[in-house]
Amino acid sequence: MRHGFIKTATASPSIRVADCKYNSEKILSIIRKAHEEGVHLLVLPELCVTGYTCQDLFFQQALIDSARESALRIASNVPRNMVVVFGAPVELRGKLHNCAIVASSGKVLGIVPKINIPNYQEYYEQRWFTPALPNEELVEFGDHQVVMGPKLIFTCNQLPAFRLACEVCEDLWVPNPPSVNHAINGATVIANVSASDEFAGKATYRYNLIEGQSARLICAYVYADAGEGESTTDLVFSGNNQICENGITLASHKLQSDDLLISEVDLEHLEHERRERNTFVTTNDKEYRYIGFDIEMGETNLTRRIDRMPFVPEDSELRASRSEEILTLQALGLKQRLRHINCHNAVIGISGGLDSTLALLVTVRAFDMLELDRTDIVCVTMPCFGTTERTKTNAMSMVERLGCTLKVVDIGKAVMQHFEDIGQDPENYDTTFENAQARERTQVLMDIANKCNGLVVGTGDLSELALGWATYNGDHMSMYGVNAGVPKTLVKHLVRYCGRTTNDSELSRILMSVVATPISPELVPGKQETEDLVGPYELHDFFIYHMLRWGSSPSKIYRLARYVFDTSYDDAAILKWLRTFYRRFFSQQFKRSCLPDGPKIGSVSLSPRGDWRMPSDACVKVWQQELETSLE
């Protein structure tokens, strides 16, 4: 429950048609198993107490009575700290309703009847069931009255973000599902008790339908489907269960009988997404009733997949197609800028590192799109005190293979003159020593661009912008920053992708050498590796994603990082670099406030004109205190 995680589960009990006592034993066994697993919300199929396929047996008083008794027995055995949603028929004034019963801590919280009763193709439900009445009713259920109605939202008293609403099978398939109103009236979790039969192609359609609904409503959608034991007289049911969160399927498969499908839903993610989207308009329908329940707060054991590298898809096919898409987006951004200003020349500072390599590859693509001569891409390598032979050779060879124009400008003498002018000791390898080189390189690039009427293409990436790992008015500045929306982990992959897909074997060798070269600014003599100074980029990109994309707190990010990187970094290292991240992120905003133009590439952007508006003098204290307090 802490950090907004609730453990959810679905199951398809192996039933016997019309044997309510047997079915209730199966259901109770599943409930006990789920409770042992720490499940907070368990969703079971439509009419699982009786079986969905009872047909005219639903008219029999014996079945109705047995179903009521079994439903009461199930509800009375739901343990504390757990909510169970299951399907059963409920009688009201002589009419039978197909309902989702919501129970917690040994009692029924409410009953939600099915609104849309199908009577087409293989469905004949209107023969037995009556649609939900528009207003809530009080139903005698055991020794007490229970609220029954289509507009019930069950709210956790300890975690207000946990707001549960229900719909029943067909309710999802209609043009205006009740879950739409549930969501805009506050529900963050939709439970669907369902009995959806199978035929060829239906499973894929339903899978996409559930994902799409969870995306539209920015909700968790927990779907339980009838399975083994239902009558196969005319239909087959296979228990296709699914747990989704905001358009992403967290868990899904055809289950063996009585197995639990479990995942953790992140309610803080959902609340953040709804807050951020001003087009997600909430309403206040006075007909909705909010019913409280209790679940003790505690640490939810995480089992769900959390991407170690959230900016880089793990699936190889998706990674390849995404890489091609990103490179095209970057090139299209530069293409439009060049065409708009009628510029036929580009100038790039080439170091032999990842960022400048990616910028060059993107620029070549843009020139090819515009059918411009690649020789008008002027690549300037500017060796100085820390330049290594490897990076210099890679830079020069790469330019040659790509057919661009190479300029070599040794800036050593100019920088030494500058040191003399400002009284800088050249043996003092301080910030001035490093930044003077970066600013000299930028001056060279800008002036060469003036000479050839060209545009300076920036190389800095999203991760460097987040950390402020750029020299103000040095490599921080350009005329168009093609990498501004690309984090470092993705930069590395994109260069690797280009190396693997090029038809030029020598270029491939060079690009793979660039990928294998330790990241370094090469500003001081000897070994100087960036990740030793500011921390591993795979950690920082993880921090960036969860802070900016989801608004996660420092303590939550620390928890997730420990979960994901447990075999790579110890807790002390993660904590050290997380503290570094927050300190640098807040102190370096002034550099991001005056960034050059550059294209948005993914869901995270730091453009001061786009996704990220932040005062340059904002205080980091609240974030630091939240993290330190969580460690006490």
Describe this structure in words.
The protein has 632 residues and is an alpha/beta fold. It folds into two domains: 2-293, Carbon-nitrogen hydrolase (Nitrilase/N-carbamoyl-D-aminoacid amidohydrolase), CATH 3.60.110.10; 316-631, Rossmann fold (3-Layer(aba) Sandwich), CATH 3.40.50. The chain contains 19 helices and 20 strands. The chain has a seven-stranded mixed beta sheet with strand order 13-12-11-10-9-8-15, with helices on one face. A six-stranded mixed beta sheet has the order 5-4-3-2-1-14. The mean pLDDT is 95.
What is the topological layout?
Layout: E1 5-11, H1 20-36, E2 41-43, H2 61-76, E3 83-92, E4 95-104, E5 107-113, E6 137-141, E7 144-148, E8 152-156, E9 163-168, H3 178-184, E10 189-194, H4 202-216, E11 220-225, E12 240-245, E13 248-254, E14 260-266, H5 267-276, E15 289-293, H6 316-340, E16 346-349, H7 354-370, E17 377-381, H8 389-402, E18 405-408, H9 412-422, H10 431-452, E19 455-458, H11 462-467, E20 480-481, H12 488-501, H13 505-516, H14 530-533, H15 537-549, H16 554-564, H17 571-587, H18 589-592, H19 621-631
Parallel strand pairs: 1-2, 2-3, 8-15, 9-10, 10-11, 16-17, 16-19, 17-18, 19-20
Antiparallel strand pairs: 1-14, 3-4, 4-5, 6-7, 8-9, 11-12, 12-13
